[in-house]
């Protein structure tokens, strides 16, 4: 090599060496000179990479649950804007505004919107489009909930147990009208044992310069459907436990490359059941799923109608934290999960999850939704305001949970009359008919004067139907004892506070039953299980062996509330017409709603034989 070329090459080598040393020092590589051995290039590159800021992605998952037909902040039973003492607001039109705000802040491409079930039952709006102007009719309408949820842009929803209340045909039609999947990994075809609905939904989120983030949503519904809507699903669908099916599907989703696994579960978090031991599955098992099944990052909880901004559960197998959130029902809240991911070693990993709830009372209605469904809303308002009779006096449920109220006697009288007519001419016609009913609402009122469908609907807020079962006197005593557990044990000389007298062990009002046709006392001094006193029928002590036809709603008949004997009792008749409709028919036929035609004092609370309320 010529000298000048050699000099030039040496000078270039020195320049390159100084440049390398300067860059290495800036990177903290600490390369040694003066006879030391330089670090290999691979080691230097790895060290430099370790010092670079991690590559991250933020995902926001929004969730609603137990919408129960609430599109607007409107109380169809009061024919007025909805309001309560807490200042809550309801309806998807409010939630839509919240969703729009979150999408504007986070970027729509970085958000996911889910629901955890119980969508198409619960208000006169949903009843109207299931029964009065049904979506299943030839050329029928699009369900208002489908219209609203499509317009808002839901990505997926889990099946709720109330989705089955109107039968599978109505549910399938609703599913057909949606532009997103209804998920139910544990809703299986009874014959094939394969999912009857899509088990999961997967969505990819693009990240510039990096692989997409793949999010899988597993939908799980409630095994109690097999009990509560047995008439519709028996022999057609089965509902295994949530934990079992999550353990089956989550590993599959991970093997498919899911970076994030979210479960939308129509199941509460308490680990309890309302139907006793009739099924080997836990009704409210969302937290158990998080605890037992690895690789779940977040759970949208439904079914229980409670507000859980954030619940952290540790998975027993991995030690990782799973975040659960349940927004308040009726679209009063929107859950928000913020999921932070980091890209390391060639893949995305979840670094953290947090959750909170947004209150729909903080925003106005989305005019897009109100305009979209204004016609449907107007039709239902006109329907519920139809006058069907006249009441001679005001009837109310204000005291119905602790006093025998005539307004509840109206329900039992209608049920007795319907069952007696249905069994006329049969071998069961000679058996006495008695009935049960619950004080569903604490605020329902039928005012004196004109009676409308909405007045009667507010009395019976569920779409239950009527069933006739045969029970003995002994079984009815056990039934009454179980019902009486609703009351808090109260000392003989204690001041009675009606606000603390009921709902023992958090039992809801709808799981306390009146039983008409019998006369009995409930002694609240006694411990649960020994409270029923002086049970008589037609003025004589109840004979344990006497048989009765028991007119009962389908929820209770199928085991809802875990009342003894009724689920296994002989069934002699049932129908698909709602009890609410039967009440309206009864009042329409009578024309005049007069307590003398239905009211009776069948039961009273006592303490050692002394009435708790002297006016009873």
From TrEMBL:
SUPFAM superfamilies xref list: 5'-nucleotidase (syn. UDP-sugar hydrolase), C-terminal domain, Metallo-dependent phosphatases
GO terms (BP aspect): nucleotide catabolic process
PROSITE patterns membership: 5_NUCLEOTIDASE_2, TAT
Subcellular location: Cell envelope
Catalytic activity, reaction form: a nucleoside 2',3'-cyclic phosphate + H2O = a nucleoside 3'-phosphate + H(+); a ribonucleoside 3'-phosphate + H2O = a ribonucleoside + phosphate
GO molecular function, one term: metal ion binding
Cofactor: a divalent metal cation
Domain Calcineurin-like phosphoesterase: 60-306
Record's signal peptide: 1-44
GO CC term, one of those recorded: outer membrane-bounded periplasmic space
Start and end residues of each 5'-Nucleotidase C-terminal domain: 387-566
Pfam families, alphabetized: 5_nucleotid_C, Metallophos
Domain of life: Bacteria
InterPro entries for this protein: 5'-Nucleotdase_C, 5'-Nucleotdase_C_sf, 5'-Nucleotdase_CS, 5_nucleotidase/apyrase, Calcineurin-like_PHP, CpdB_N, Metallo-depent_PP-like, TAT_signal
Alphabetic keyword roster: Hydrolase, Metal-binding, Multifunctional enzyme, Nucleotide-binding, Signal
Family: Belongs to the 5'-nucleotidase family.
NCBIfam families in the cross-refs: TAT_signal_seq
Protein name: 5'-nucleotidase C-terminal domain-containing protein
Organism: Streptomyces guryensis
Lineage: Bacteria, Bacillati, Actinomycetota, Actinomycetes, Kitasatosporales
